Amino acid sequence: MNSTIDLQKVAAIIDGYGCRREALIAIMQDIQAEYKYLSEETLELIAEKLDISIAKVYSVATFYENFSLEAKGKYIIKVCNGTACHVRKSQPIFDALHDYLGLTGEKKTSADGLFTLETVACLGACSLAPAMTVNDEVFAKMSPESAIDLINVLREKEAGANG
Question: What is the pTM of this model?
């Protein structure tokens, strides 16, 4: 997980837009593309360099659903909750992953920092329902058991890469 944010690199992204206020959303998108989230320090630097209030920057960051103020895991899991997936029981898949990853309350990222669990309105893979993605790779006709098996495969892959 990318836990350290290079504020010089963030400043370079902002400078690349000429520190223009009207580029606020584009700046935030580029920073999030680089780090997967917008840290408090990042938001403060944006506000300072664009000469706008931190409240304004924060309000934009929280208004748009695509912005995240929380660090995300290496693997971003999106469970579809669209109609086709929902009627084919996507909720038990989400619930099983939520429990298996030890997530509680509003927490979306596992303690080991590897997995972030989210729901999405539709993945556009209705014929494959229930579907989920891991880092935008689609997995079809999932069950709670197959979803947990996939998590275990990814954990083993990480252990092998780090061991």
Answer: 0.74
Say if residues 91 and 48 touch (Cβ distance below 8 Å).
Answer: no
User: The domain containing residue 80 runs over which residues?
Assistant: 75-162
Reading the block at residue 68, the tokens are 């995240």
Residue-level pLDDT at 4:
78
| Overall domain count for the chain | 2
Does the residue 28 lie in any domain? yes
Residues 95 and 128 in one domain: yes
Contact 78, 88 (CB under 8 A): no
CA angle 24, 27, 33 (to 5 degrees): 140
pLDDT tens digit string along 43-54? 999 999 999 999
Q: Is the dihedral of CA 66, 70, 73, 78 positive or negative?
A: negative
